[in-house]
Predict the structure.
Amino acid sequence: MAKTETPERSQAGEGSSEGRTTPCILVVDDSATIRRSAETMLSNEGYQVVTAENGFEALSKITRHRPSMVFVDIMMPRLDGYQTTAIIKNNPEFRDIPVVMLTSKDGLFDRARGRVVGSDQYLTKPFTREELLVAVKQYAG
């Protein structure tokens, strides 16, 4: 069974992605419902899932877990998805980690802004299990 983690769970599975056989996916969203839904969909497919409820927590978990890819909500308090993505993509150690932005906004401006900060893809909420898995297979194998 895949290892999963939410902020309340243990920190088992920490460390580099090297030697890991199952891709680790980081899901960042201030909505517990979205985090749980994505975690369930992905862990049921055998992926290791780490969750974070904001951008600051995500940056800490990226350092610890070295995920294969990141799903990040755009609209979050404190550090939004654009800022979080820009920090990831401007860090030489993490810039190659694919970032897929999650949002309920589907405007051209939002998509363009996501590309400017370095996002690899844009997924509109509510997303389906299939849409989530297509993105994971495309970016995390």
